[in-house]
Amino acid sequence: MGVRWDVLVRVLTLADYNTRVVVAGAVLLGAASGLIGTFMLLRKRALVGDAISHATLPGIALGFAVMVGRGGSGRFLPGLLIGAALTGLLGVASVHGIRRFTRLKEDAALGIVLSVYFGLGVALLRMVQTMRQGSAAGLETFIYGKTASMLAADAWLMGGAAAAMLALCLVLYKELKVTTFDPEFAAAQGLRVRRLDALVMGLVVGVTVAGLQAVGLILVIALLVIPAA
Please, are residues 187 and 9 in contact by the beta-carbon 8 Å criterion? Predict the structure, then answer.
C-alpha cells in the first residue's frame, strides 16, 4: 500500500481542525513536561516520573470498573484520569514511605513501586477485560498512547491541564528555583520546602496523567527527561 501523499500533506499543514487541536494540546503538554522535568532532573529524581507513570495503571482499571459498576460505560475520560491520578499519588507516597521507614535507598524504592504497581495494573486490566463492557474499552491505549485517535474534547482536556500546570510553575518559578538549588537557604528564607517539594511531585503526577492518552504511561517519561536533559 503506497503513501497517501494527500493525507500526509493535510497532516503536515494542519488542515484539519482536530489535528490542530491535538497538536496544540501536545505542544502545551511538552512545554509543561519540559519545565517540570527540569526541576526533577536537577534534584536527581528524573526516574521518579517513570515510577509514577507505571503506578497510574491500576487507577485506570479501577476507575473503569467503578464507573461500570455504577451503571456507566466506563469510557468517561475524566473518571479514568482521576483514578490514574489517585494511584499515581499513592505511588509517590509509597516511594516516600519506603525511603522513610526502611533502609532502602530511592533507586530501590522506585524499582519496587514501578514493578509492583505495574504488575497490579496488568492484573486488573486482565480482570476488566473479562467484563462485558471491558472487551471494547480500549484501555490498552493508555499503556502505549494513541495520539491520532484523540478527540478534540480529549485534546482540550489535556492542553488545559498542561497549561494550568505550566502557569503554576511560572508563578512559583522563583520559589521552585531556590528550593531546587539550595533547600537550606530556602528554608532559612521562610519557604516551606516540604510543601514545595510535594507540589513538584504533584505536578509530575499531573503532567503524567495528562499525557497518558497521548504518549502512554511507558513513554511519558521521555517528555519529562529528554527536554530537561
Answer: no
| Cα separation, 68 vs 79, whole angstroms | 11
Q: Which residues contact 126 (CB under 8 A, 6 or more apart)?
A: none
Burial of 102 (0-12, 13-18, 19+ CB in 10 A): exposed
**Triad 158, 73, 162: Cα angle to 5°:** 5
| pTM summary value | 0.85
Entry field: residues in the chain: 229
Residue 222: exposure state from Cβ atoms within 10 A (0-12, 13-18, ≥19): middle
Contact (Cβ atoms closer than 8 angstroms) between residue 40 and residue 203 = no
Nearest to 52 by CA among 91, 103, 13, 105: 91
pLDDT in tens, 123-149: 998 888 777 665 545 788 888 888 777
